[in-house]
Design goal:
mainly beta, Pnp Oxidase, Chain A, 8-stranded antiparallel sheet, 1 helix
């Protein structure tokens, strides 16, 4: 038997189906010069994620640069589903909504270590 694939594409609208056992996500924003990473727990509706209490830096970054990256770590050992050892990595377009950030996922993959 061969090794499992390195990456598995996820349909953005089905993202939540792949998040069982993943407590939080790293939201990566940038200001054109440097990246900023924050760990958050969003609410999810299909391919749309809403982040509350992000802090000032992500809000400022998204206001000027809408492209973001989202990364969920692999699940802990108690989860044994097919892709539990894969990270979930997604790209999205973000907008500021008051004190929240709303991200629409445009592309997502399950990714395992090489």
């Amino acid at each position: 038997m061969g090794q499992s694939p390195l990456s598995v594409k996820i349909v953005p609208d089905a993202l939540s189906e792949h998040l069982l056992g993943r407590e939080f996500v790293y939201l990566v924003t940038h200001n054109g010069e440097r990246s900023h990473v924050v760990a958050l727990r969003p609410t999810i509706n299909a391919a749309t994620l809403r982040f509350e209490q992000t802090g000032r830096t992500p809000l400022a970054n998204v206001a000027s640069h809408q492209l973001v990256t989202l990364t969920w770590a692999p699940c802990d050992e108690k989860y044994t589903h097919e892709h539990a050892r894969y990270s979930v990595v997604a790209d999205g377009v973000a907008v500021v909504d008051g004190e929240a950030i709303i991200v629409t996922v445009t592309n997502a993959v399950l990714h395992r270590p090489a």
